[in-house]
Amino acid sequence: MSDPVRAIVFDLDQLDFTKNGGLVTVVTQDVATGAVLMVAHADREALEYTQRTGEMHYRSRSRGLWHKGGTSGNVQRVVSLTADCDADAVLARVVPAGPACHNGTTSCFREDAVHADVFATLDATITSRMQHVGDTGPSYTRKLLGDRNLRLKKLGEEAVELATACVDGDIERATEETADLLYHALVALRAVGGSLDGVRAVLSRRAT
After folding, report:
1. Considering only the top CATH level, what class is 118-207?
2. What is the average pLDDT value for the chain, to the nearest integer?
3. I need a surface site. Which of 4, 5, 67, 197 has the fewest CB within 10 A?
């Protein structure tokens, strides 16, 4: 049975549709990775369809009203809609079912922009592996998630190896060990129900 459609709560009256001939700009972002997937336009009708169906709809001057993924299956399930300060643009945070670009790429933007937030991408991968911990096949992440003693042992080992590299003044090895430690720390955090967003929130509070 498919998941029930979740209506998106968003006050369309806060938007100014008069600035661009009835259209507002929509910046669509992958909620898991933070990657900007595409930029398009929508009018009130398109956003009403988006709210009602829970999937992104846009308005094109050439194509008219269109449902993203309606033909290809690469729909974008909406998590939230947020207006900008000028009320003429919307940030749409979505869960994409496939590539956003008609060229078959994840994003309409360059690959380095798509993977700018490498930590969010890594966290999304770990989260995906959590859903298939019991699956067979080679996956070091699934192995760690399924074995508490192993992941805690590796976490300790990576911390020691980083400390040793720093003592030795080996920048290259210290960089590699830092990457290893961050990966194992994220796995351990996810295993106990934590998240990267939680870490970001803590760091934001401490920065103020």
Report:
1. mainly alpha
2. 87
3. 4
